[in-house]
Amino acid sequence: MNRMLLVLSLFAVGSQVASPAMAAEKLFAKATETDDQLKKLFDEAGDGCLHSRSPDVRVTVACASMRIYGFALNERNWCYGHRDEANAVMDWHRCDANSERFSLDRLVDVGR
Asked: Which UniProt keywords apply (predicted)?
């Protein structure tokens, strides 16, 4: 039952992002976290995701969480890194034309 709820929740999020009618509406407009709180949550999820090749569910969830937190920050005009920038120097900044952006169309990256 919990697995079904997770699948349905992820489907609902994905379908809202993919819908052209929803493109102008922000998915997380009513979120109460501050920008700094979202950045901290992103970093914490990254700790569970980025340096692991484990097939464990918790690692997959951490990686999906990073994308969701990043997407929420993108909606607030925060971006993480620029195109063609080394990962080691990427940091949060106000989005510009050359900024990397998060997408929810691939919440689970199976081939990490």
From this structure: Signal
| Residue at 2 is within a domain | no
Q: Is residue 33 in some structural domain? A: yes
User: Which residue is listed with tokens 């997770």?
Assistant: 6
Predicted confidence (pLDDT) at residue 16 exceeds the cutoff of 70: no
E strand or H helix at 78 = strand 78-80
Q: Is the Cα dihedral 34, 39, 43, 48 positive or negative?
A: positive
For tokens 């607030």, name the residue: 76
DSSP classification of residue 109: -
pLDDT tier for residue 67 given thresholds of 50, 70 and 90: very high
What residues form DSSP beta bridges with 94?
A: 78
End-to-end Cα spacing for the chain: 27
